[in-house]
Design a protein that fits this description.
The chain has an 8-stranded parallel sheet with strand order 5-4-3-2-1-8-7-6. It has a 5-stranded antiparallel sheet with strand order 9-10-11-16-13, covered by helices on one side. Strands 12-15-14 form a 3-stranded antiparallel sheet, with no helix packed on it. Helices cover 29% and strands 17% of the residues. A hairpin with a 2-residue loop joins strand 10 and strand 11. The chain has 2 domains: 327 residues, Alpha-Beta Barrel (TIM Barrel); 112 residues, Golgi alpha-mannosidase II (Immunoglobulin-like, Sandwich), CATH 2.60.40.1180. The N terminus is likely disordered. 44% of the residues are buried. The radius of gyration is 24 Å and the shape is globular. It is of the alpha/beta class. Helix 4 crosses helix 5, helix 7 packs across helix 8 and helix 7 packs parallel to helix 14. One of its GO terms (molecular function) is alpha-L-fucosidase activity. Belongs to the glycosyl hydrolase 29 family. One of its GO terms (cellular component) is lysosome. Alpha-L-fucosidase is responsible for hydrolyzing the alpha-1,6-linked fucose joined to the reducing-end N-acetylglucosamine of the carbohydrate moieties of glycoproteins. InterPro entries: FUC_metazoa-typ, Fucosidase_C, GH, Glyco_hydro_29, Glyco_hydro_29_N, Glyco_hydro_b.
Length: 487
C-alpha cells in the first residue's frame, strides 16, 4: 500500500510538471527550470562543421566559420591587425574570382564521417553533452529541410555534397551513449534574400518553420541559438516561439535553451546564460563559457600547433569555470570529410584521462563559499585584444607575471565534501586557507589510496602531501584534494 501511494504521488508530480503552461512573455518563460543534469554536467563539446570546413582558412585570430562573410564583405574582425580583404585574396588565389561560396556545398562530402566513432570519442573525453551546428550563418543545414532550399537552390546536406542527414546520424549515435545531444541553430543568415530585403517574411516563412522542423525531427536536449543580435526579441517572435517549444513541441518535457533570443537579451532572459572567450564571470543561475581549442570555432588549417591551447591550459580553464559554477563548452572543428583533426582528438582524450581521476571534484559539484584561494597581488586580467585567449589561466596559475596574484587553489563542493584543486603539485605541504576540520574530517588525494595527514593551524588546514615519482602521480596538470566534514 505504501509503495502504491509513493508511486501515485510521483506520477502526480510528473503530471503537474508536464501540465505546466508557459505564457509568451519573459516573466513566465524565465520560470522554466534548468534541468539538474546540465548543472551537473560541467563539460560539453561544441562542433562547428559545414561548407566553411572546405576552405577552412582565415587569418589567425579570426573565425573560419565566418568565411562567407569575410569573403563577400571584405571585412575582418578578431584578434589581430587586418587589411580586411585577406580571405577574399586567399579565395581568389585558391579557387578563382568567379567561384561562389555556394560551390563549397558540393565539396562538403563528409565521406569519412563515422558518427559512432565521434560519439565514442566524446564519451571517452568525459563530455556529458555535445552541441552540433545544425545551421550556421551561411544557412546550410546539416539535415534535410524544405526552408533551406527557398533561396532557389538546394542548400542542405541531404541533397548537396554529403547526401546524408548528418544531424540525424550523429543524434542516433550519441543517444546510444550517456551523452546528451544538443543542436546549435543560427537565427539569421547573412545573405538570404529575405533576410536582406524582408526580415518579417524571413522570420515568418523561413526561420520559424525551419527551427520548428529541427525540434520536431530530433527532439534535442539542448537548443543552442545564435545570430540573434541584429533584431529585438519581439521581431524574432522569441517569446511566442518559446511558449510553443515549452507547451506544444515534441521536446517540451526535456528541452533546454540558452539566452540568445534577441538583441540585448544575453544574460538576461531564456534558459542558461552564455559567455564567449571571457573569464572571471559568475552568475546566480546556470551558465556556460564557449571557446575553441585554438581560436577559430570552425577548423582553420592556418592554425599551427602553438595556436592550440595545451591540455594543461584546457584542464585549468575547465577547473576555473567549474569553480565559478559554470560549464565549459569546448569547440572542435572537423574537416570537410568528417575527420576530427588528431590534435583535437588528443586534447579531448587527455582531458578525459584527467576526468577519469578527478571527475568527482568536477561533475555534480557546485560553487563553494569562495571559488579560489589567491596569493597577494593584482588580480586583474590584462586583456587588450577583442577575445580573451586561453593563456589567461596559465598566467593566473603556473606562469604568473611578476606582481600579479595567483590562483593557488580552486574550490568546488558536493554532498558535504569540499575539493581543493591545485594547479601545482605541492612539494611537501599544502596550505588551505579558511578551512576548519571537524573530529571526523578526512583528507584524501583523488587517485591516491591512503588518507593524508593534516593539522589545523588557526583558520587554515596544513596537509602533508605524499612525495611521488612521476610514474606514481595519479594524473597530470592539476590535483584534487577532497576534505570531508569540514566546518
Amino acid at each position: 500500500m505504501k509503495k502504491t501511494l509513493i508511486l501515485f504521488c510521483l506520477m502526480v508530480a510528473i503530471g503537474s510538471l508536464q501540465a505546466q503552461e508557459y505564457e509568451a512573455n519573459w516573466e513566465s518563460l524565465d520560470q522554466r527550470p534548468v534541468p539538474t543534469w546540465f548543472e551537473d554536467a560541467k563539460f560539453g563539446i561544441f562542433i562547428h562543421w559545414g561548407p566553411y570546413s572546405v576552405p577552412a582558412w582565415s587569418p589567425k585570430g579570426t573565425y573560419t566559420e565566418w568565411y562567407q562573410y569575410w569573403l563577400q564583405s571584405k571585412k575582418l574582425f578578431g584578434n589581430g591587425d587586418f587589411e580586411g580583404d585577406e580571405v577574399y585574396q586567399y579565395h581568389v588565389n585558391t579557387y578563382g574570382k568567379d567561384f561562389p561560396y555556394y560551390n563549397f556545398g558540393e565539396m562538403f562530402t563528409a565521406d569519412l564521417f563515422d558518427p559512432e566513432e565521434w560519439a565514442a570519442l566524446f564519451e571517452k573525453a568525459g563530455a556529458k553533452y555535445i552541441v552540433l551546428t545544425s545551421k550556421h550563418h551561411d544557412g546550410f543545414t546539416l539535415w534535410p529541410n524544405e526552408q533551406a532550399n527557398d533561396r532557389g537552390f538546394a542548400w542542405n546536406s541531404m541533397e548537396v555534397g554529403a547526401m546524408r542527414d548528418l544531424v540525424g546520424e550523429l543524434t542516433a549515435a550519441v543517444r546510444k551513449t550517456p551523452v546528451k545531444m544538443g543542436v546549435y541553430y543560427s537565427l539569421y543568415e547573412w545573405y538570404h534574400p529575405w533576410w536582406q530585403n524582408d526580415k518579417a517574411r524571413f522570420v515568418d516563412e523561413h526561420y520559424l518553420p525551419q527551427i520548428k522542423d529541427l525540434v520536431q525531427r530530433y527532439q534535442p536536449d539542448i537548443l543552442w541559438t545564435d545570430g540573434e543580435w541584429e533584431m529585438e526579441g519581439e521581431q524574432w517572435r522569441s517569446e511566442e516561439f518559446l511558449a510553443w517549444l515549452y507547451n506544444e513541441s515534441a521536446a517540451k518535457d526535456h528541452i533546454l535553451v540558452n539566452d540568445r533570443w534577441g538583441k540585448g537579451l544575453r544574460q538576461k532572459h531564456g534558459g542558461y546564460y552564455t559567455t564567449e572567450y571571457e573569464a572571471g564571470k559568475t552568475f546566480d543561475k546556470p551558465w556556460e563559457e564557449c571557446r575553441g581549442m585554438g581560436f577559430s570555432f570552425g577548423y582553420n588549417q592556418n592554425e599551427d600547433a602553438q595556436d592550440y591551447n595545451s591540455t594543461q591550459a584546457l584542464i585549468l580553464m575547465l577547473v576555473d569555470i567549474v569553480s565559478n559554477g559554470g560549464n565549459l563548452l569546448l569547440d572542435i572543428g572537423p574537416d570537410a570529410r568528417g575527420s576530427i583533426p588528431p590534435i583535437m582528438q588528443q586534447r579531448l582524450l587527455e582531458i578525459g584521462e584527467w576526468l577519469q581521476v578527478n571527475g568527482e571534484a568536477i561533475y555534480g559539484t557546485r560553487k563553494w563559499t569562495q571559488a579560489a584561494q589567491w596569493s597577494e597581488g593584482d588580480r586583474k586580467i590584462n586583456h587588450e585584444k577583442g577575445y580573451l585567449g586561453g593563456d589567461y589561466i596559465l598566467k593566473q596559475t603556473v606562469d604568473p607575471t611578476p606582481g600579479k596574484a595567483v590562483k593557488e587553489l580552486f574550490f568546488t563542493q558536493k554532498e558535504g565534501d569540499v575539493y581543493a584543486i591545485s594547479p601545482i603539485y605541492p612539494a611537501d605541504q599544502l596550505l588551505i586557507k579558511g578551512i576548519h576540520a571537524s573530529a571526523s574530517t578526512e583528507v584524501t588525494l583523488l587517485g591516491y589510496d591512503a588518507p593524508l595527514d593534516f593539522e589545523q593551524q588557526g583558520n587554515d588546514l596544513l596537509v602533508k602531501v605524499p612525495r611521488l615519482a612521476s610514474n606514481e602521480m595519479p594524473c597530470a596538470h592539476a590535483w584534487s584534494f577532497r576534505m570531508t566534514d569540514v566546518e
